[in-house]
Amino acid sequence: MLVSSITDTGAVVTWETDEPATSQVMICDPGEVCSWTEPDETLVTNHSVTLSDLDPNTSYHLTLISEDESENETTYERDFTTSAQADTTAPVISGVEVSATTDIKATIEWSTDEEATSQVKYGTTDAYGLTTTLDEHLTTSHSLTLTDLEADTTYHFRVKSKDTSGNETTSDA
């Protein structure tokens, strides 16, 4: 028996029998709540059942049931776990502020709701033009210092953070 194509909400179960038989799967969650797939009455030796509507990152117990035309039943059992739900949400940036300014440097601080990288785009126009080196240290409290600034000059900036799943967000201008 093989459980393949495992996602956060489904999987494909395949198995073989030594003679033509029907296909059905009983699936039980950790709370031992069980459900059945629709029986496939087609007599085959290579069986395939697609499981769907499962919960992410959950262990399931499967009982595969095949019955030949003489009603002899064979069962196979197996446990498997669905994958974790994919993170598709970018970090939320908040509390962006400028602190510790001097004539030639400024520190930009912000927070994110999940651990993420830190980077600042900045420049003397809202086209920015300059970008700090990416700080790959994952944190929720970010702080980067801009150096070599020109005295008595207005700078525009945006902060940018990326989480471990590659979801990126940039603050408003």
UniProtKB/TrEMBL annotation:
<dbReference type="GO" id="GO:0046872">
    <property type="term" value="F:metal ion binding"/>
</dbReference>
<dbReference type="InterPro" id="IPR036116">
    <property type="entry name" value="FN3_sf"/>
</dbReference>
<dbReference type="InterPro" id="IPR015914">
    <property type="entry name" value="PAPs_N"/>
</dbReference>
<protein>
    <recommendedName>
        <fullName>Fibronectin type-III domain-containing protein</fullName>
    </recommendedName>
</protein>
<dbReference type="Pfam" id="PF16656">
    <property type="entry name" value="Pur_ac_phosph_N"/>
</dbReference>
<feature type="domain" description="Fibronectin type-III">
    <location>
        <begin position="1"/>
        <end position="91"/>
    </location>
</feature>
<dbReference type="GO" id="GO:0003993">
    <property type="term" value="F:acid phosphatase activity"/>
</dbReference>
<dbReference type="InterPro" id="IPR003961">
    <property type="entry name" value="FN3_dom"/>
</dbReference>
<feature type="domain" description="Fibronectin type-III">
    <location>
        <begin position="92"/>
        <end position="173"/>
    </location>
</feature>
<dbReference type="InterPro" id="IPR013783">
    <property type="entry name" value="Ig-like_fold"/>
</dbReference>
